């Protein structure tokens, strides 16, 4: 998925990386807004090295940093860690981890002129998926199983 290029060159790859960071920032804004209902939920952002994916290597693009996000709510912690932009069947992958659960968050939208469509996959049964929204985030913060 994602914007189709007539020519895949260094400028295209840099554009895609910029778009990836922008979509992640919008995702994190949603997460922060949705978590405001939780009194004293601590939001932590941390810069991590961007994975040097194959296309980046091909065009000698050195990895920059990318933001990961964690939310601490009481004894629970929910983290969102970007894993890769170029993922077959999606427009980027973010791993979600709670104290007792792990999920895969992928953007099934985000192609040219289409907004992101963040979707949570069950890593054990990837055909099981749900739209990522405020309801899903609340379950994550409570460390509930999204697919129970």
Description:
The protein is of the alpha+beta class and 148 residues long. It has one domain (10-141). 26% of the residues lie in helices and 33% in strands. It has helices spanning 10-34, 54-58, 134-141; strands at 42-49, 65-73, 76-84, 93-97, 102-107, 118-122, 125-131. Strands 1-2-3-4-5-6-7 form a 7-stranded antiparallel beta sheet, with helices on one face. The longest helix has 25 residues, at 10-34. It is globular. The mean pLDDT is 90.
Can you describe this structure in just a few lines?
The chain is an alpha+beta fold and 148 residues long. It has three helices and seven strands.
Terminal Cα span: 29 Å
Oligomeric state, counting identical vs distinct chains: single chain
Characterize the largest beta sheet: strand count, sense, and whether it forms a barrel. 7 strands, antiparallel
- The mean pLDDT is 90
The gyration radius over C-alpha positions equals 16 Å
**Beta-strand percentage?**
25-35%
Uncertain parts: none
Q: Globular, elongated, flat, extended or rod-shaped: what is the shape? A: globular
Total number of strands: 7
User: How are helices and strands ordered from N to C?
Assistant: HEHEEEEEEH
Total domain units: 1
- Note the total helix count: 3
Strand order of the largest sheet: 1-2-3-4-5-6-7
Given the helix and strand composition, which structural class is it?
alpha+beta
How much helicity do the residues have?
Answer: 25-40%
